Amino acid sequence: MGLKALFLLVVAVLSNSAFSCDKTLKVGISQQWAPYAFTQNGKLTGIDIDVVNLVLKEAGFCAKYVVMPSSKRGFAELKHGKVDLLPAASYSTERDSFSSFSEPYRNEVMRLFWYPHGRLESLDLQGLLDHQQVILTNSGSYFGSDFTHLKEDAKYKDQLVTVSSLRQRRY
Fold first, then answer.
1. How far does CA 12 lie from the centroid of its chain?
2. Is 104 part of a structural domain of the chain?
3. Which of 20, 74, 76, 93 is at a distance of 20 to 30 A from 2, taking alpha carbons?
4. Residue 160 β-bridge partners
5. Are residues 38 and 81 in the same domain?
6. In terms of domains, do 90 and 28 share one?
7. Helix (H) or strand (E) holding 28
């Protein structure tokens, strides 16, 4: 075997061990949500994808991404062991009963937006509902205990509408 061939063999073996994984984890991704997770040129990318890849690589794991139709489905799959990890998951007591949480890797605030109506600008969520406004939310998302209590109130059941896709929220 020539010196060049031996060198290439050593490089190939070292490269393979440097990029090998101890285990591959199934990572559930629920929706296209730029800049966090989206498909570009046929490849899943985004901030959450970069964070997951970096953390898993450091820990010696690889990621196999599994696209879910909604966050709600992602949590069901996690609960039943069909996926190992869900990025961008908000903490709730119910979710804590079947999963573990990392420290937050990004902080965000949920905001409402609507077509401009001057009479509605100073209202909180309950005030908007009391003014017969309909609020669309993501399936499987957690918006805090105040929102949960309003959602459980029968008088608002037709105004707090859960949709599973970005397309439904936009049209």
1. 36
2. no
3. 20
4. 135
5. yes
6. yes
7. strand 23-29
Residue found by looking up tokens 């869900």 in the block: 86
Which residues lie across from 25 on neighbouring strands? Answer: 63
Coil/strand/helix, residue 120: helix
Same domain, 30 and 88: yes
Residues 6+ apart with CB under 8 A from 26: 64, 66, 82, 83, 84, 85
Q: Give the whole-angstrom CA distance, residue 164 versus residue 74.
A: 12
Q: Give the count of beta carbons closer than 10 Å to the beta carbon of residue 78.
A: 20
pTM above 0.85, yes or no: no
pLDDT, one tens digit per residue, over 4-42 is 443 444 444 444 445 578 899 999 998 788 899 999 999
* Residue 138 per-residue DSSP state: E
Instruction: Give a yes or no: residue 4 inside a domain.
Output: no
